[in-house]
Amino acid sequence: MKRHFLICVAAGALVCSWPSQTATAQTTRQITPSNVFAPGEIWREISGKPINAHGGGMLFHEGTYYWYGEIKEGRTWAPEANRSWGGTRVMALGVSCYSSTNLYDWKFEAIALPATTNEPSHDLHTSKVIERPKVIYNRTTKKFVMWMHIDSEDYAAARSGVAVSEKPGGPFTYLGSFRPDAGVWPENVTDTNKQPSDHNPLARDFAGGQMARDMTVFLDDDEKAYQFYASEDNATMHVSLLSDDYLRLAGKYCRIFIGRSMEAPAVFKRNGKYYLIASDCTGWAPNAARSAAADSIWGPWTELGNPWEGAEAAISFNTQSSYVLPVQGQNDKFIFVADRWISTNLPDSRYIWLPLRFGANGKPELRWQSNWSLPAAHSARSSRE
Ligand code: GAL
Questions:
Q1: Ligand 1 mutation pick, 82, 85, 284, 339, max ligand atoms within 8 A of CB
Q2: Would strands 357-358 and 364-365 be described as parallel, antiparallel, or unpaired?
Q3: pTM, rounded to two decimals
Q4: Distance (Å, rounded) from C-alpha 76 to C-alpha 318?
């Protein structure tokens, strides 16, 4: 695909607009800090403090975008149990929420789901793991439902957590965590899958529930919602239907990307097709991203390869996927939302937002841009909500 950019000059920096297949005009316009994305730079909320919302998920509701993420603050250390694979951590402090109407300027709303310090066995205790929070809105119950990865410090618990709120900024009420789909075989189970063996985590975890680590939730056009999570010792992903109130699982799931060890799933829909961008499984260290498409959310999913192009594609320009955000009021515009983890100083990890492009066969494509902007007509209020 040919590249066209609107070139804008601001404070000595080159700023590129959303890549368009038709835009050819060269224009000069005034750039203020609030209409440029600068991936990898410190991103401050309007009060001036760096945004603290890692592994984030986005919600668009009544003209406002909400950004939920992991609060990473304080000292980074490597617990003994995680040293072999480089699993550093900070104290879990809960889930933050920021709001914006233009996607550039963010206001801290609240700690939507705080951690607790006084009950060491509680899922939300600061010693635990609270990662990749995602929030969806249930139009029937009018509740905001947060799903997240809950774990023990050594990541052995591998559970899904759920919280619910009347308002997007919280406070969210924590409902608890569980291992998904206990006692239920996946739709695409085979007889071999049911045979217990040391190398068969699906059968091993059948009774107690399947492992759930890196996850996302996806809300479809028909209001059905799904959780995607890395399961079976992270080797295989599961996609699982949520109940109508989104507070639990409905008991229907499929195994996808069997044995492909995919993490950090971000799912979106474009022209009636489902897409997924994910990472390989290398902890905080970057790797070559994956992409895939499917006509049905249950699969079959066809892998489309690494969406990244350019010199650092093999390490995804030092990023890991977190979410794909459809831009409201703009046709066919999606933002790739990712983290650039700094494993030795996790609070200094950065956000990488880039426009997603699509190749001839619909393959998602990503190219590094150090500055870029949304098309000028962008308005959050012009969307269907
Ligand atoms: C990554 C995962 C992150 C976090 C990290 C811990 O693979 O995507 O969300 O769990 O491992 O090392």
A1: 284
A2: antiparallel
A3: 0.91
A4: 19
